[in-house]
Amino acid sequence: MVHARVALFGAAGYSGVELLKLLALHPGVELVAAASDSQAGKPLSDLTGAGAGPGSFVRTDEALLIPADLALLAVPPDAAATLAPQLRAKGTKIIDLSHAFRAATGKTGEAVYGLTSLFADQIAGATIVANPGCYATCVITAVAPLVRHQLIERDVIVAAGSGVTGAGRTGEEAMSLGELHGNVRAYKVLRHQHVPEIEMALGRVASGSSSTTPRVILTTHLLPIARGIFATITVKLRRPVSSAELTDRLRADYADDPTIVVAATPEDVSLRKIVGTNQCHVGIAAVGDIAVVTAALDNLLKGAAGQAVENMNLVLGLPRMTGLTHLARHG
User: Fold this and answer.
1) Active-site residue 138, yes or no?
2) 283, 264 Cβ separation under 8 angstroms
3) Domain map of the chain by residue range?
4) Fold of 134-299
5) 116-123 vs 194-206: helix axis angle to the nearest 10?
6) What is the C-alpha separation between 278 and 274, in angstroms, rounded?
């Protein structure tokens, strides 16, 4: 097994802590630096329990001096845009979990879009990978087969909700337990940053066919839970298709993907089944020319840290699911 040196920046955030736990159990990498300016000098176990083994957090400037084959950036986009050139100048490959490089994917010399279920061949050997957003992973996974097989009209209508960890660690009152308990509200209506990303990826799936690039109308909701994303997606079909036929289509497309579970019905998809896993569950039903797809994933695993490890594995030439098979499985 290849033993690559890996540095983690933003190691004290929600996704960073998940990465610490995953890297500690990964047989093919060695964690050489866990950077967090706010936690520098403190044991990793302060945030992970015993899950990350011995070691302490270091400052970002210290981590930059430690040789690494690959860096995972679990930091805000401005910080990622600053760190990336310094790391690339040293020949370090990068998996960025922010949206700093997602808009640059697909352009020569820029990042590769790291949705492993669809673009694994392009990710292998890449020098910088833009890890997809959590909402984007959920919606693209659910809709991509319908787009690929030219089954739907242009509009993809999405109502989706996320646990509060999706916003990262924050001291905002709106994210406090008192504000969230027993409450649901919409946010970033008609201006969510994941919409261009979703449309870009679905446009790539549609490329080469007569399909028009889908237009995504995404309404996101903040749920009174810690983690998980649940999406309900409505599309108009080009022709009437049965629920059974659509389910078979999704299962055929994802037959070889260990991270995608196609449920028997949309009602069989639930947050309880996916939290703690690196899976995305999808279910579909149709009546006439209208189809409804439900999809759910853990925003900190398949929507962030778990998929980042998948990308890391592909970049390093390791099997995609290395270091992830211990996670809970459902379905």
Assistant:
1) no
2) yes
3) 4-130+302-316, 134-299
4) Dihydrodipicolinate Reductase; domain 2 (3.30.360)
5) 70
6) 8
Distance of alpha carbon 70 from alpha carbon 73, whole angstroms: 10
The number of C-alpha atoms within 13 Å of 310 and in the hemisphere containing its C-beta is 28
Label residue 48 by pLDDT band (50, 70, 90).
confident
Q: Residues 312-328: pLDDT tens digits?
A: 999 999 999 999 998 87
- The whole-number pLDDT of residue 261 equals 97
**Higher per-residue confidence, 181 vs 1:** 181
Question: Is the torsion defined by CA of 298, 78, 85, 59 positive or negative?
Answer: negative
Which helix (H) or strand (E) segment holds residue 84: the answer is: helix 77-89
- Greater model confidence, 310 or 171: 310
pTM of the model: 0.93
Structure-block tokens of residue 46: 């302060």
Neighbours of 224 (CB within 10 A): 15
| C-alpha distances out from residue 208 to 48, 117, 143, 204, Å | 46, 19, 17, 9
**C-alpha dihedral (215, 205, 257, 229), degrees to nearest 10:** -20
Q: What is the largest CA-CA distance in the chain?
A: 61
Catalytic residue among 4, 111, 134, 140: 134
Residue 10 scores a pLDDT above 80: yes
Tell me the CA end-to-end span of the chain in Å, nearest whole number: 30
Could you write out the DSSP letters of every residue in 25-78?
T-TTEEEEEEE-TTTTTSBTHHHHTTTT-S-B-B-HHHHHTS--SEEEE-S-HH
Q: Which two tokens stand for residue 215?
A: 């237009």
- pLDDT, residue 108, reads 46
Chain mean position to CA 5:
23
The residue ranking higher by pLDDT, 232 or 179, is 232
* 4-130+302-316: CATH topology: Rossmann fold (3.40.50)
